[in-house]
Specification:
The chain has a 3-stranded mixed beta sheet with strand order 1-4-3, covered by helices on one side. Helix 6 packs antiparallel against helix 7, helix 6 packs across helix 9 and helix 7 packs across helix 9. By secondary structure, it is mainly alpha-helical. The protein is built from 11 helices and 8 strands. A hairpin with a 2-residue loop joins strand 3 and strand 4. Helices cover 52% and strands 10% of the residues. It has one domain: Cytochrome p450 (Orthogonal Bundle). The relative contact order is 0.19. The chain is globular, with a radius of gyration of 19 Å. It binds protoporphyrin IX containing FE.
Length: 294
């Protein structure tokens, strides 16, 4: 019995059953309570907020040259010993998330973003710590100076009456979290595959690694966890990831640069995994690059 079943949450698995569930009008993403988050609503309000976010993400399609150069320089500059989470995946995911929002995000911000995830309340209980971290980030972003980019676009959508006050307060954090967390986990796991000698394509790796293992829906008989592990890493239906193109481009660039860095071979030290029931990822994976020519 997995963690969901222990909490009385039904689990749907198998690709066809999951695809049907994700497209079903019977199952909603809205747990009730009127959340302003794009992830936790359906219907016209969801489509309206999603439209604003989709236009922001389209600003990174195709992936901008300056962002490509920043990712390549960062990965190319890794020293002879580094951690695939702390030194590879985190800076790449952080750089891309900064570009999505058009805001400089420091380590404190990224720590809070990860705290939000670690505590993310997936069982409908009351986890104050995760919510507190998300709330602090929302306040921080509401005061942040923004360059052209996602946060400015959200503020403009608010000024134009396309977002209400609550939607403007919380969706910058939702966007930051969506852009950061799954990419962080995917990049680190895929980096470990590379370091272990795999040469699968990025698309095959994201399907196999599946960093977001489940999405939660609510039906007439209660909450349902829909598994994405059978070939649906970006979900499906109304909430399917609008950032999948950016995520794949980001991974292609970062993993190609990492493969170059690891060309001469490497040793992988002790690997530690996170234990979150939804977000599948590494806690740390130290790597030492072999010196070329002895
Ligand atoms: C490997 C990286 C990524 C994976 C595996 C992933 C996966 C997902 C999944 C499974 C969902 C659906 C959630 C649901 O149905 O409840 C989702 C939603 C979302 N993702 Fe991604 N994502 C990734 C990267 C990104 C990036 C880079 C961005 C932004 C640039 C992004 C933006 C979003 C947004 C805004 C949503 C909410 C969509 C909605 O509720 O309508 N994601 N993502």
């Amino acid at each position: 019995m997995d963690e969901f079943e222990r909490h009385g949450v039904a689990v749907v698995s198998g690709r066809n059953a999951c695809a049907r569930a994700l497209r079903s009008p019977e199952l909603t993403s809205d747990p009730g309570g009127g959340s302003p988050s794009v992830l936790l609503r359906d219907g016209d309000d969801h489509a309206r907020v999603r439209g604003v976010l989709r236009a922001i993400i389209a600003g990174l399609e195709p992936f901008p040259d300056s962002l490509r150069a920043a990712v390549e320089d960062g990965v190319g500059g890794l020293g002879p010993a580094f951690d695939l989470v702390r030194d590879f995946a985190r800076p790449v995911a952080g750089t891309v998330t900064s570009a999505v929002l058009g805001v400089d995000l420091d380590d404190v911000f990224l720590d809070r973003l990860e705290a939000t995830t670690a505590n993310l309340d997936v069982f409908g209980g009351t986890d104050g710590a995760g919510q507190a971290a998300a709330f602090r980030l929302a306040v921080q972003l509401s005061r942040a100076e923004a360059e052209p980019g996602g946060l400015t676009a959200l503020r403009e959508a608010h000024a134009a009456g396309r977002l209400d006050d609550d939607e403007l307060m919380f969706n910058p954090v939702v966007l930051a979290h969506a852009a950061y967390e799954n990419s962080l986990n995917f990049l680190a796991c895929a980096g470990l595959e590379l370091a272990s000698g795999s040469s699968r394509s990025v698309r095959d790796m994201v399907t196999a690694i599946c960093p977001a293992r489940y999405v939660l829906r609510f039906g007439p008989a209660g909450p349902v966890a829909v598994s994405l592990a059978d070939g649906l890493p970006f979900g499906l239906g109304r909430h399917a990831c609008p950032g999948s193109g950016v995520a794949l481009a980001e991974a292609e660039i970062a993993l190609t640069a990492l493969a170059r860095r690891l060309e001469g071979g490497c040793e992988v030290g002790e690997v530690r995994w996170k234990t979150h029931p939804v977000f599948h990822g590494l806690a740390s994976a130290p790597v030492v690059v072999r010196l070329r020519d002895g």
